[in-house]
Specification:
The chain is an alpha/beta fold. It is built from eight helices and eleven strands. The strands form three sheets. Strands 5-4-1-9-10-11 form a six-stranded parallel beta sheet, sandwiched between helices. A hairpin with a 6-residue loop joins strand 6 and strand 7. Helix 5 packs parallel to helix 8. The chain is elongated and about 55 Å long. The relative contact order is 0.18.
Length: 232
């Protein structure tokens, strides 16, 4: 039976593919205030702006490719039961071949009904426009978890983390909750790693191995460490 490798990935994972990180130090996301494009209030004020913002992000995502880090995680499925919890809204894990991916913050290539949130649709192409409606006749919105909204899959993610034999954090500052809290439910017996060029404070996390590298380089090192530790 394969060991369960659970990986929490953040913006640093996709940055190497050319997808800008969520926001800069100025609090803006690609020159837009976060509140204007990633909140229910922003949607209520100017839904057309929000739709166009995500259209441009979606167009960009369709132009990029998975990086070596994505490929390494997909390749590790040969030896481990790899389950990915990602804060990223792109599909690069899936394109690389990872089979078990949970998107905590939604998926940019999907839309959902503003009347019934259980109605979720794939977006054909890269545009979602004002006037595009669900089967109930209500406007479609990006299938994204915005600030101020609940994270419906967090309990599922916690269940995954709580049963990990190996847990790795890749490319995330562990500042965005509730995702950052997942490290607290990982079994004390699990092998734990954190990969980031600037490893955040981990004083509260016991027995975790820091790898101060970018996602691809760090995952290449992790692969070798796992092979040695697990005699693969």
């Amino acid at each position: 039976m394969k060991q369960k490798l659970v990986v929490l990935t953040g913006a640093g994972m996709s940055a190497e593919s050319g997808i800008p990180t969520f926001r800069g130090t100025d609090g803006l996301w690609e020159n837009h205030r976060i509140a204007d494009v990633a909140s229910p209030d922003g949607w209520a004020r100017d839904p057309k702006l929000v739709l166009e913002f995500y259209n441009q992000r979606r167009k960009r995502i369709k132009e990029v490719q998975p990086n070596e880090g994505h490929t390494i995680l997909a390749d590790l499925q040969e030896h481990f039961d790899v389950q990915i919890i990602t804060q990223n809204i792109d599909n690069l894990h899936e394109v690389a071949g990872s089979e078990h991916v949970l998107h905590l913050h939604g998926e940019i290539l999907k839309s959902r009904s503003t009347r019934d949130y259980s109605l979720i649709y794939d977006i054909k192409g890269w545009e979602l426009n004002w006037g595009d409606t669900c089967e109930l006749g209500s406007q479609l919105r990006p299938h994204i978890v915005w600030f101020g909204e609940p994270v419906p899959l967090i309990e599922h993610a916690a269940e995954m983390a709580a049963t990990a034999d190996i847990f790795a954090v890749v490319g995330t500052s562990l500042q965005v909750y509730p995702a950052a809290g997942l490290v607290n439910v990982v079994p004390t017996s699990a092998q734990k790693f954190i990969i980031d060029p600037n490893v955040p404070s981990i004083s509260a996390i016991s027995n975790i191995t820091p790898i101060e590298k970018g996602a691809s380089e760090g995952l290449a090192l992790l692969r070798e460490m796992l092979k040695k530790r697990n005699q693969l």
